[in-house]
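Reply to dn_fold:

You asked what the input looked like. This is it:
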Amino acid sequence: MLRSMNTFALIAFASAVLGPLASGNSVTADRTIWQGKYSETERANFAHVAGDDWIEVVRSGGQSDRIPYREVTRTAAFIELQMTGRPEYRIRLYSDRLEKKSTNGSDRWVELATGRWTE
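and this is what came back:
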């Protein structure tokens, strides 16, 4: 019950921040909430808001940051997101991990967090 209330609160917040439904990728019944952790004290939660819009809520030490993303690729294996305003910053959400694209010019992806799809 508490988890679903937190999920609802996250989606409600993301909807308020990013505005009304926009055109783009259709919302699917699966892969709309990804929850994981970067470390024992730093949590990451991604929520699909609408269209191509996603939001990440990072929780660490009682603080939280909200970071907007755009969906750029969707496959059976992962969803790739690009941080809004930072085209060089891309991540992929898999069923068990989050990977970040290296920014040193290579095509290498590095695991940053473990997690899973919850919805």
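The domain at 2-117 is CATH 2.40.128 (Lipocalin).
Hope that clears it up.
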